[in-house]
Amino acid sequence: MKRMKLIFLLLIAFYMQCMFLASVNAEAYKPEVVLNTNKGSITLKLDPLKAPGTVENFLRYVDEGFYDNTLFHRVIPGFVVQAGGFEKGMMNKKTHAPVKNESANNLKNSRGTISMARRSHPDTATSQFYINLAENSRLDYKSKFQPGYTVFGSVSEGMDVVDKISKIATHSVNKFNDVPEEDVFILSAKRKQVKIIYKADKKVNAEANEMERYIAGEHYTVLDKPVPTRNSNKIEVVEMFSYGCPHCYEFDPQFKEWAKAQSAEIDLWSFPAVWNKPMKVFAQAFYTAEKTGVLHKIHMSLFNAVVIKQKKLSTEVELADFFENYGVDKKLFSETFNSSEVKKQAQQAEEKVKSYKPVGVPEIIVNGKYRIDRMRAGSMTEMLAVADFLVNKERNLLKK
Q: How many Cβ atoms are within 10 Å of 9's Cβ, its own excluded?
């Protein structure tokens, strides 16, 4: 009898442990995606257990970079904001095959949930999605004869950004209604990097930027030949960017904010990468702004004009007109833009790139030894975490 009781208790304990692990795995199996928009950041927590096909479809578009530079193209206050299918000018993007409707998953179109947009047939959703601004129960599944719209996650952070977008005035563009008068872009859509750690039956979620250790070749690159720094008494951290790069537009403010928290022993500076003619024009514009004393005013405005407004600023004449809006006389602009000093600086920037051998922009170089790119680091936020790690590594070397 005692033996049977012991077996029974062991079975109960095993069952409870399985239930605990199942709940842990269910929670761990909820990937997050960060939408970086020109109005702020929105984090989406997805539910692949309730909507597996839909989440797989959504993440496929995310991983391919499909959503980068797409519009929030439909805004109806008190109802939804919709995105994921159009570029600037309401130009439709080519999508993959439609995904099967999964609206009978008991998830509701509540405020803050994310759902797939579709046409009248239930199995026509492709890339477009919407975020509910209210309790939209009429969009829920009713029966197989009244299928709803598939809910596949919710906003975990940034609902205030969604509300901000919902208040933008709208108009009609060709056959499309409820289009924001001001373009609202998804600059990038990336999976949030999370490391799952299990210790003593407890799950600890640690974001990758809290990792204790980063590995050369996996998270950053060691340069084959160290590049001399401009101040050997400090630890140099350099940001490489280009005004024509949407990811640079997103990363530059993050880098500047990170830079504010650094100590005086760190030598921080940025330079425009050059490996083709358009980038060289932008580099000359950067050094011209620096030379004429308007860089602090014009830097983000130039980024915004090129990346967000997509203005044509690829020639000296076009840039002279742009600089004139910031108090730089056209004659002064042209003289500075074509000066031997500015051209030499642009040439030096090109030579720096050849030494650093980047795979793209934005990238960070730490003390002329290490190169950090977003693909190896995992994200742009992770680039800064790896930079912290390498700065500490160099700091410890200096102490020896």
A: 10
Residue spans of alpha helices (H) in 41-140: 52-63
CA 2 to centroid of chain Cα atoms: 60
d(CA 247, CA 372): 14
- Start-to-end Cα distance in the chain: 69
Give the model confidence (pLDDT) of 352-393 as tens digits.
999 999 989 999 999 999 999 988 888 888 899 999 999 998
d(CA 200, CA 27): 18
Peptide bond into 122 cis (omega under 30): no
Please state, in angstroms and as integers, the Cα–Cα distance from residue 263 to each residue in 187, 229, 237, 266, 329, following that order: 31, 18, 12, 6, 37
Residue ranges and CATH numbers for the domains of the chain are 28-191 (2.40.100.10), 210-399 (3.40.30.10)
CA dist 107 to 51, 83, 163, Å?
A: 9, 20, 22
Query: Residue ranges of the alpha helices (H) in 240-379?
Result: 246-260, 277-291, 295-303, 316-324, 330-337, 340-356, 374-377
Task: Quickly count: other Cβ atoms within 10 Å of residue 396's Cβ.
Answer: 9
Check if the beta carbon of residue 251 is closer than 8 Å to that of residue 383. Answer: yes
What is each CA distance from 294 to 83, 197, 253, 324, 328, in whole angstroms?
36, 48, 17, 11, 8
Residue 383: what pLDDT? Answer: 92
